[in-house]
Amino acid sequence: MKSILFLSFASLILANPTESPGLCPAVDGQTISNANSAFYTVKCASDSWQGAYGSVDVASSYLGCLNLCDSHATTDGCGGFVYVGGVNGTGAGRCWLKTSLGVMKSAPLNYIAATRVAKTTSAASTLSTVAKSTTTTTTPITTTTTTTSSTTPHPTTTTLHTTSSPTSTSTTTTSHSPTPTPFLSCPSSNGETYTTPSGASFIIECSTDHFGGDFSRVATSDLASCINTCATTPSCVDVSLSAGWCYLKNSLGFASVNTNVWGARLVQK
Fold it and tell me: C-alpha dihedral over 24, 25, 28, 32, to 10 degrees?
């Protein structure tokens, strides 16, 4: 009886219909595979604002992103993607490849997020896995680099004394430190207009993220530095600062509330 139950359970795994996946919303929450790709857990109408390191266009549907992420898994550590294209994942679109996805956020129906969970499993290895009940857990490693700069806002005074007989001369030289960059933070800076050293003006939008438009990112935890980078980058019109990454955007999608994002929108360049 135990052998019969074991074989039935193994057969159920091997006949998993998710190896021939469909479109959203039917695959929402399922773990799927496409054309011998690794397995991915899919979340329809969802987005992630962390871990992006590159993007590649696909011609037919979100399923092409699975194989693209596989091809970058060894070289770039691809751990998932966000597809932005046709409604429910059909049609041409762009795969935003990510090292990790973190907490998913609600998004329009043309967004699909997926996390890479395992390599493809053959019939023999599946039976072996069931028999041995072996579980392998991969823990992503996150490295955070924090740079702290200290600026002295007060002038430094140096007094030089020259003495000769019978008179003495006293000379005082005063030097001023450069004007420090304004400190921006949320929610205290929300709604303020910040002018960058290059003369561009941005409105601070705390807890606001505009969908789409991401074309580059820079590692920083300082909102002013993030905005200054955008001001000197051609076509950049908006930024989203989250989890130590400054995401540069070349277009403004609709705004959504995200308490993990400090945003800023260009108003004059």
Answer: -40
Query: What is the residue range of 32's domain?
Result: 17-121
Work out how many domains the chain is built from and give that number.
Answer: 2
Listed residue (5, 15, 33, 1) closest to 123, CA to CA? 15
Residue 195 per-residue DSSP state = E
Residue 45 is assigned to a structural domain of this protein: yes
CA atoms within 13 A on the CB side of 129: 16
Structure tokens at 49: 């604002």
pLDDT digits (tens, 9 = 90+) for 144-175: 444 444 343 444 444 444 444 444 444 444 44
State pLDDT tens for residues 220-261: 989 999 999 999 999 999 999 998 899 999 998 888 999 999
Residue matched to tokens 């579980």: 135
> What's the CATH number where 96 sits?
3.50.4
> Cβ neighbours of residue 174 under 8 Å, at least 6 residues apart?
155, 156, 157, 158
Residue ending a domain, among 83, 104, 121, is 121
3-state secondary structure of 226: helix
